[in-house]
Design goal:
Structural class: alpha+beta
Radius of gyration: 14 Å
Number of strands: 6
Distance between the termini: 4 Å
Shape: globular
Strand order of the largest sheet: 3-6-4-5
């Protein structure tokens, strides 16, 4: 399996994402949206960074259960209820990402939403990975 990250010089330099990821492998794992739910189904954390860390950890836990690792992520979509708040916390969110998932960034998008399934949720992450 391989993920070839492509960042053309003609595009703006990527920060915390890859412009394109070419995935070659034998299994695709689709990851459901993960919020900051704990094991009892309650949202934990009051700030976007706190919830982002838990949501990312939940996404990576689901990926590990399927036999994958952070480096296998080909695509992640972030749904945020407040894009301005997300932008304001970008440096901290980047540090959280690097600590939990490393520096092999998938193709990513951040999408502003009115609300998420749980009223208290501020952020949700979903995506897919390609495994050998």
């Amino acid at each position: 399996m391989s993920l070839d990250r492509r960042n053309p010089a003609e595009l703006s330099p990527p920060a915390g994402f890859s412009h394109a990821v070419v995935a070659t492998g034998s299994r695709v794992v689709f990851l459901a949206g993960q919020t900051a739910l704990d094991g009892h189904g309650a949202v934990v954390g009051d700030t976007l960074p706190e919830q982002f860390e838990t949501a990312l950890a939940n996404l990576l836990t689901a990926l590990a259960a399927a036999g994958g690792a952070p480096r296998d992520l080909a695509r992640v979509t972030v749904y945020a209820t407040d894009v301005a708040d997300y932008r304001a916390h970008t440096p901290e969110l980047g540090r959280i990402w690097r600590r939990l998932a490393g520096r092999d960034y998938p193709a990513m998008a951040v999408i502003g939403v009115v609300r998420l399934w749980d009223d208290r949720a501020l952020v949700e992450l979903d995506g897919f990975a390609v495994l050998p």
